[in-house]
Amino acid sequence: MIRLLETTPGWLRLALTLALMAALLALSIIPGRAQEGDSIFVWAVAATPTAVQKIMHLLLYALLAFLWAWTLSAVQSVGTRIALALFLTAGFGASMEWAQTHIPGRFGTLQDALLNAGGAVLGLIAAGLLL
């Protein structure tokens, strides 16, 4: 598994990282209230229990931070790589929370921004152990 992580081309690492960011963006801008005519996906997101949403914040932002640390592996300084991955992940998470303040039925919260940042820290711990 670790050998596979080491031999994956940089362009593919970046593509996977940006794909997750695109998915998080899509999830973040879905209205919080489903209406007649909305897709089943919008209905599913709107019906997701709050506790599950909070767990998803931690898990998805942990994965994003891990992916950023992996994508930035060419950066020689471990401290710089970790700082960049944390900045990109937590900054993106905070931006998504801010964006949600403009989406009907969604509420960007400091708690969720902190969960995103906490997930980022967990992902970077995992990256430190696995990469």
Q: How does this structure look, described?
A:
With 131 residues, the chain is mainly alpha-helical. The chain is built from six helices and no strands.
Q: Quick gist of this model?
A:
Helices cover 76% and strands 0% of the residues. It has 131 residues and is mainly alpha-helical. The longest helix is centred in the last third of the chain and has 23 residues.
Relative helix content = over 70%
The global form is elongated
Biggest β-sheet, characterized? none
Strand content: under 5%
State the distance separating the first and last CA atoms: 10 Å
Count of DSSP H/I helices: 6
Overall tally of domains: 1
Helix-strand topology string: HHHHHH
Pick out the low-confidence regions: none
What's the β-strand tally? 0
Mean pLDDT: 91
Query: SS-based structural class?
Result: mainly alpha
Radius of gyration equals: 16 Å
List the helices and strands and how they pair.
Elements: H1 2-7, H2 10-28, H3 40-47, H4 50-71, H5 78-100, H6 110-130
Helix pairs in contact: 2-4, 2-5, 4-5, 4-6, 5-6
Descriptive terms for the model:
mainly alpha
